[in-house]
Amino acid sequence: xxxxxxxxxxxxxxxxxxxxxxxxxxxxxxxxxxxxxxxxxxxxxxxxxxxxxxxxxxxxxxxxxxxxxxxxxxxxxxxxxxxxxxxxxxxxxxxxxxxxxxxxxxxxxxxxxxxxxxxxxxxxxxxxxxxxxxxxxxxxxxxxxxxxxxxxxxxxxxxxxxxxxxxxxxxxxxxxxxxxxxxxxxxxxxxxxxxxxxxxxxxxxxxxxxxxxxxxxxxxxxxxxxxxxxxxxxxxxxxxxxxxxxxxxxxxxxxxxxxxxxxxxxxxxxxxxxxxxxxxxxxxxxxxxxxxxxxxxxxxxxxxxxxxxxxxxxxxxxxxxxxxxxxxx
Length: 329
Description:
single chain; MetI-like fold; about 65% helix
């Protein structure tokens, strides 16, 4: 029977199947049951995964509650008192209103700067020696002295800070007959040294061996390899260790109580800076003012705590930024 041109009801027998191309690849998902891949809490593996994820998330949030509470309290109590006058004036006497802790900010920065100036050269040279010993140990065995120094550096990472203050007290305060910024810097440098040594050693050892071999192949001496290849390449990691050491030392109180003590005055007098005198610091100011029965001093302690946290946070963020830059390289 003829089929009209306008009709769409074509019998199946008259429909020819599409030709199969033998070169077409087989469907790789033909035997896959996609319904089995759907996420459902009825399956044991999915239920366990969901439970553990929820547990870890809840514990993380719970652990952040104390930190966020402290930060919020510092912002609320300390932020109310911060002003230009507070950051530039001297601490007030009891029952005196106003005042600030400008000398404590300068004292903290000065003591930490002195500690960095004393620790970085020693720590960097020690790290170079330890890194060179690690390379020699791969070839013909390391030196006993390097192993001892590395072990002592690791032990010093857990050294109680108050013992560093006692050591500086006996080494400088008793010898010179007075508290000073140099004594405080010595105590903080003891705490900073192991961090700088270990992080700098790791940064130097992470420099690719092909860079050192290429420099030696071009006729460079070992000294030139260290100063022109190793140190420039490891600078981000070295700076990271320095920033982490600064963040730890800036918040220490016990060592400064034995060494720098405290002062209500500026470090300079008549145009001359005297570092061989008691020096104010934010940590000791917080310790002194927080226990006073005067509202003005307590509020200043909250403000000083906020400034100190911001300084430490800035040092930590700088170290993390430098570390991320090293990883991208």
